[in-house]
């Protein structure tokens, strides 16, 4: 009987892995975070470490990831370091080159997964089921490139899964909800009243992304004793939002730099190379991350002030700084993220935008489940409770950073043992770029049938340029709002050889659709000219 079910939370700043098991009563599933043995900068193995830094460093001996990369890279060769790669996956970015070797965001992500497989998963036996989480708002191309990373990591370890690899992707908010409810059932709690079929807003704010999903939780049982009896109907998913913990760190790092300069005026005149600036920036970000977490913990414990001593090395000189900060000043530094409603960085505004695009009112939300590392911040928790009411806000105690990974392995077990699949709606519509703007060619409904659009060639030509974009769906196909266009991401740019020359004004029919069962892939298209289907031949 299959028994090794794993889940990976492939995070922007940290990556975690869990393993699920069937409970003693053979009803509910429970899961645990696994340790990931890693080397530190000194080359010593730290066995009991439950997270992998999503950090890449190309050393003299080749690529390394995790804690060793995080500690060695910025000191030895900052220009060979990569972080926050998840924000770039599936986007048109220039690959990185180190020592003549090319790395794409997908390649770097594959190294993170490969490390987990080699040093954690294989210690527990073969893989019977695997789930990897992605933001709910990832478009098809971003999901596709994540799948490529998974496939590459599996191939590096000669592992063949016994299921379609497209099935192993699960959105982070749904995984978090799955993990939380399974733990709630296991511990016989009723934080979220399952027998009332509640409407839950999952608010997932981590190190690199903010993900929102509204879910209707359904069950036919009055007393739920297994996650197997719970179903999920996804009502709405927000657009991709890459404002999260690392942005808070950037803001705090600027504050700390200003404090250093205020205390040491000579820093204004220090000349630095580009690499020196990168090293100092990396050090400031690390200081800011620790400052943010330690200050937050102090305020949670009821302290009115946070006191710390910081050191910053610049041009072989160490600058010390003593900082005492009150909670009000700490809140003021982060005001653009939390209370300034006009700020584009506000992490609560996406909730308002999401609700505006549905027929759901704030009062209709029964619970808000807060997950992700940044949901531990007291300022964010307090604001959420003010907005929705304290009785509606649910925060996993000591599990905010782990709950996505915990749910992922449970989904692996549900999929393999119970053949239970969670259907997630596509997050994108598709648009064709024209000379005078954009035209929607495939919406989030009627996906298999597709839409036939007719255009006329702008000039005499034997070639056709097809530029396909993914973005938020629009209700007005004739006039696409600028806010909708701002969500667009390029998916495909194809030059088509038409086989012969056509006159200006020739009618072209463009049909975009998914093949059956292929909704997790970039949609296909068909071109018809003068009632004849053109064989799509891509040009170099």
TrEMBL record:
Q: Which family does it belong to?
A: Belongs to the heat shock protein 70 family.
Q: Which InterPro entries match?
A: ATPase_NBD, Heat_shock_70_CS, Hsp_70_fam
Q: Which UniProt keywords apply?
A: ATP-binding, Nucleotide-binding
**Which source organism?**
candidate division WOR-3 bacterium
Q: A single GO molecular function, which one?
A: ATP-dependent protein folding chaperone
What's the protein called, per UniProt?
A: Hsp70 family protein
Entry annotated with the keyword ATP-binding: yes
């Amino acid at each position: 009987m299959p028994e090794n079910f794993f889940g990976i939370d492939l995070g922007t700043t940290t990556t975690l892995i869990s393993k699920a098991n069937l409970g003693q009563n053979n009803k509910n599933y429970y899961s645990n975070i696994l340790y990931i043995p890693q080397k530190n900068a000194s080359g010593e193995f730290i066995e009991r470490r439950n997270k992998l830094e999503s950090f890449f460093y190309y050393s003299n001996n080749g690529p390394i990831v995790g804690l060793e990369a995080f500690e060695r890279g910025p000191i030895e060769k900052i220009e060979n370091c990569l972080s926050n790669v998840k924000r770039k996956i599936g986007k048109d970015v220039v690959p990185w080159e180190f020592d003549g070797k090319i790395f794409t965001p997908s390649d770097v992500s594959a190294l993170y997964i490969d490390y987990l497989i080699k040093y954690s998963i294989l210690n527990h036996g073969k893989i019977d089921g695997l789930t990897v989480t992605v933001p709910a708002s990832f478009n098809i191309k971003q999901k596709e490139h994540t799948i490529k990373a998974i496939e590459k990591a599996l191939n590096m370890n000669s592992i063949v899964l016994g299921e379609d690899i497209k099935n192993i992707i699960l959105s982070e908010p749904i995984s978090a909800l799955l993990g939380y409810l399974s733990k709630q059932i296991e511990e016989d709690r009723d934080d979220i009243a399952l027998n009332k079929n509640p409407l839950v807003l999952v608010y997932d704010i981590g190190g690199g992304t903010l993900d929102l999903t509204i879910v209707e939780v359904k069950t036919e049982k009055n007393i739920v004793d297994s996650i197997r009896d719970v179903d999920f109907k996804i009502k709405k998913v927000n657009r991709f939002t890459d404002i999260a913990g690392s942005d808070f760190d950037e803001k705090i790092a600027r504050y700390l730099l200003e404090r250093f300069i205020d205390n040491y005026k000579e820093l204004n005149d220090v000349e630095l190379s580009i690499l020196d600036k990168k090293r100092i920036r990396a050090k400031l970000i690390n200081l800011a991350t620790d400052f943010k977490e330690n200050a937050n913990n102090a305020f949670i414990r009821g302290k009115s002030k946070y006191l710390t001593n910081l050191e910053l090395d610049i041009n072989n000189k160490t600058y010390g700084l003593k900082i005492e900060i009150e909670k009000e000043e700490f809140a003021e530094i982060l005001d653009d993220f939390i209370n300034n409603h006009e700020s584009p960085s506000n992490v609560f505004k996406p909730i308002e935008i999401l609700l505006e695009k549905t027929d759901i009112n704030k009062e209709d939300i029964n619970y808000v489940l807060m997950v992700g590392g940044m949901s531990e911040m007291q300022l964010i928790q307090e604001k959420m409770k003010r907005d929705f009411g304290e009785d509606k806000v649910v925060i996993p105690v000591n599990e905010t950073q782990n709950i996505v990974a915990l749910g992922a392995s449970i989904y692996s077990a549900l999929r393999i043992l119970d053949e239970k699949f969670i259907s997630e709606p596509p997050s994108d519509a598709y648009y064709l770029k024209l000379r005078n703007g954009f035209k929607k060619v495939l919406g989030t409904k009627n996906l298999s049938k597709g839409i036939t659009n007719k255009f006329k060639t702008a000039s005499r030509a034997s070639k056709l340029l097809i530029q396909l974009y993914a973005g938020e769906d629009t209700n007005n196909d004739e006039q696409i709002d600028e806010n909708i266009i701002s969500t667009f991401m390029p998916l495909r740019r194809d030059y088509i050889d038409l086989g012969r020359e056509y006159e200006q004004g020739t009618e072209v029919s463009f049909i975009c659709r998914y093949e059956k069962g292929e909704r997790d892939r970039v949609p296909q298209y068909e071109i018809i000219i003068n009632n004849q289907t053109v064989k799509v031949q891509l040009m170099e």
